[in-house]
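Exercise 7. Predict the structure of O-antigen ligase-related domain-containing protein from Spirosoma radiotolerans.
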Amino acid sequence: MITWIYRFVLFMLLFGMSALIYGGNSLHPLLDKAVSGTTLIGILALIVCYFWQPPLYKTVAWLLGLGVIGLVLESKYEYGQFVYSYFVIKRFAYCGLALLAYVVATQAGPLKIKYAVYLIFAFYVINQLFLGQIFSYNLTSESRTVTSNEALYLVIPCLYYLLMYLKDRKVPDLLLTLFSFALIVFLLHRSVISAAIVAIGVVAGLSMVGKLSTSGFPVGRTLGTFVILLILLAPALAMMPGNKVDAFLENIGGILDPKEDNTGSWRLEQSEYYLSQIPDKPLLGWRYEGYDRGEIMVNEDFPEKGTIIHSQYIDMLYNYGAVGLAINLLIILGTLLIMYRRNKTFTTEQTVLFGFLISGLVYGVSYQLPVFFWGFVGLAMYYALKRPDEEYPDDEYITVDITESSDTSLRPFVSTKTQQVL
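Solution. The predicted structure, encoded as tokens:
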């Protein structure tokens, strides 16, 4: 029973922080409450779960904890109340959900990535087909029915089926890979398209350097499948309205030249302004002062206070300075480095999560990282510290606990199938 509670919490960290499970409604009131409440739990977990974190995450817990305390004390000193704006505190602490996800994952047990793939497709079918959202989409950025955060999920099935194709060389896996990528392109979020392309390149690179248990790329079978698909799809493509196709391709072209694109130029103008403000407070950012200024770009849907900066990197630099951005990058890059160095050959879960984290780094150039992304970062650390064990079936692993303390009373989270390295 307790294991299933942990699995539910892990599900909420991976999917409950997204509009995907709320009918695709990014303004659903439960979504905001879930994000705010879970982030608060994540802040408390910095202390409660400290002793069950790997060394890197212990360091991060200290940095985040001191940062949150600093924001609370600044609020009390400057505004006479301990929490002048929870908005400022929670956005700084979002990345702490990676630490919470790691601890929860150690209790929830191994999550096969294929189950995450099934969930992603299931929610897409419900939202887009059963709820009829896709029928209002006209292949334009203005009529999109999926947010960029939701679209980022599709990188996971794309990488999963690509890896399955490289391992088993089955044509259905190639078709599912192409379908996943085609769906990403169809939804017209250029940042996600760029992120997916880079992630695919990363998986290919891992295969080339021997990190994957694959036997080369099946060039002939792949080219043959492409030729057959083009022949079969040619009549359907020829029947599509030329004006819509041209508009669609023009929107895709905004990736290469954002200055000539409406939404791309809007984000570029916003980024240039906030970049000009960062040198004034480079170390710790503008914090509450930036919150009081509000968003400089005019939009009737924006709140009076708080910024709506698109880029994750610019947002962290402007609001929390180089320190805030460094903490974010320390968690992501540190997790990637540990996974790469500790595992001679990647498992399926490690490969997909490694590629997904890389895609997030690319995605963060144009958009803020989704809150659920940090759950996947913590899950990636969990798999980074796991190794297959010959004693158990292929789908079971040993969790390597690298906690420095020798006091076993501090390790209630360690299961009977855990090998402790002291």
